[in-house]
């Protein structure tokens, strides 16, 4: 079956521009996560969606970052007025559920964002 | 912020040896633990999950969990050069909502 799909795979933008990153989770997965990974670093949690519940935005680094998830499926991460420090790989992951111990994350291939 | 600690490495082992990767976590209420493998330039892929104290074996991989010591490890037997990657430890919090990742241990398996 299809895995987590992210687009674009690469994005180069100029400082100050807005960007939108898209994630299409595995069908039927109710939980969706966004992470950021800077070069040589670990995964930094950004935001989490579960079904129709209010998202957990506690990891968003500034108010320039926002995300939405329409119809409980596709999610868009928007970064406004991009800065060079936003350059990273943005990873989306989905999970079948969140209630239960054995419910791992399935990652997409990521979007590599470069802000020049 | 809940902490998940890993030695960044690199850990170098010869082909055929056992590689031992370690991870400690700060939240005593954590319930589920995962090991992901990440090749350079690729996204993480799940290797194993464990949630009960003790050992869990899957082929050449064994995950070990000790909740009292807040310690989880991954053993790779008969290491192969194709095992060379960064291994990420992930911990699911006691509300099963967030996954916290360590910064990863880079493993080099030398032919």
Number of helices of chain A: 0
Mean pLDDT of chain A: 91
Largest interface: A-B, 24 and 23 residues
Number of strands of chain A: 10
Proportion of beta-strand residues of chain B: over 45%
Low-confidence stretches of chain A: none
Q: What pattern of helices and strands is seen along the backbone of chain A?
A: EEEEEEEEEE
Helix content of chain A: under 10%
Q: Strand-residue fraction of chain A?
A: over 45%
Helix proportion range of chain B: under 10%
The parts of chain B where pLDDT drops under 50 for at least 5 residues are none
Cα gyration radius of chain B (Å): 13 Å
Distance between the termini of chain B: 39 Å
Structural class of chain B: mainly beta
Describe the structure.
The complex is a heterodimer of chains A (116) and B (111). Chain A has no helices and 10 strands. Chain A is an all-beta fold. In chain A, the strands form 2 sheets. In chain A, strands 2, 4, 5, 8, 9 and 10 form a 6-stranded mixed beta sheet that branches. A 4-stranded antiparallel beta sheet of chain A has the order 1-3-7-6, with no helix packed on it. Chain A starts with a strand and ends with a strand. By secondary structure, chain B is mainly β. In chain B, the strands form 2 sheets. In chain B, strands 2, 4, 5, 9, 10 and 11 form a 6-stranded mixed beta sheet that branches. A 5-stranded antiparallel beta sheet of chain B has the order 1-3-8-7-6, with no helix packed on it. The model of chain B has no long low-confidence stretch (mean pLDDT 92). Classes of the chains: A mainly beta (116), B mainly beta (111). Chain A binds chain B through residues 33, 35, 41-43, 45, 48, 50, 56, 91, 93, 98-110, and chain B through 31-32, 34, 42-46, 49, 51, 88, 90, 92, 95-104.
């Amino acid at each position: 079956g299809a895995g987590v799909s992210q687009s674009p795979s690469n994005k180069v933008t100029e400082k100050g521009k807005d960007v939108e990153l898209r994630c299409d989770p595995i069908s039927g997965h109710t939980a969706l996560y966004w992470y950021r990974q800077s070069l040589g670093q670990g995964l930094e949690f950004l935001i989490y969606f579960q079904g129709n519940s209010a998202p957990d935005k506690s990891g968003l680094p500034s108010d320039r970052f926002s995300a939405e998830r329409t119809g409980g499926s596709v999610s868009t991460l928007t970064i406004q007025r991009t800065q060079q420090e936003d350059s990273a790989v943005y990873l989306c992951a989905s999970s079948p559920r969140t209630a239960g111990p054995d419910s791992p994350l399935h990652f997409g291939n990521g979007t590599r964002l470069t802000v020049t | 912020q809940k902490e998940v600690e890993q030695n960044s490495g690199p850990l170098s082992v010869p082909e055929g040896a056992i590689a031992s990767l370690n991870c400690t976590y700060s939240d005593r209420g954590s319930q589920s633990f995962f090991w992901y493998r990440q090749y350079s330039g690729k996204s993480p892929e799940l290797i194993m999950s464990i949630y009960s104290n003790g050992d869990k074996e899957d082929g050449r991989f064994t995950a070990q969990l000790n909740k009292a010591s807040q310690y989880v490890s991954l053993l790779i037997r008969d290491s192969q050069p194709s095992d060379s990657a960064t291994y990420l430890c992930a911990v699911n919090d006691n509300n099963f909502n967030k996954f916290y990742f360590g910064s990863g241990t880079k493993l080099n398996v030398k032919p």
